[in-house]
Amino acid sequence: MTATADEPGEGMKARRGFVAQGWDFARELWQVLIRPSSVFGLGALVLATTASRSPQDEAQQHLCLRKLRLRIPSSS
After folding, report:
1. 51 occurs within a structural domain
2. Residue 39 lies in a domain
3. The total number of structural domains that make up the chain
4. Distance between CA 61 and CA 67 in Å, rounded?
């Protein structure tokens, strides 16, 4: 045996296209995200983030937006 391919076509496999690789990645990511453990973990993270916000954080955010002269969406 040598370090090079002895069989014709050995080591010459065609690479999959960029779109095909992207589609495979999206499918694998979806399979991970639909697992109950992932859904529960993401939900807990969102709830923890929402619960940790205080009125002072909201006021600070509005002050920063005013300084930047951005529109502040009404919360009602």
Report:
1. yes
2. yes
3. 1
4. 10
Please state the three-class secondary structure of the chain as a single string. CCCCCCCCCCCCCCCCCHHHHHHHHHHHHHHHHCCHHHHHHHHHHHHHHHHHCCHHHHHHHHHHHHHCCCCCCCCC
Q: Is residue 57 part of a domain?
A: yes
Expressed as residue numbers, the domain containing 50 is 35-71
**For 47-64, what is each residue's pLDDT tens digit?**
877 777 777 777 777 777
Residues in the chain, pLDDT under 70: 1-14, 65, 69-76
What's the pTM value of the predicted model, to 2 decimals? 0.38
What would you report as the CA-atom Rg of the chain, rounded to the nearest whole angstrom? 25
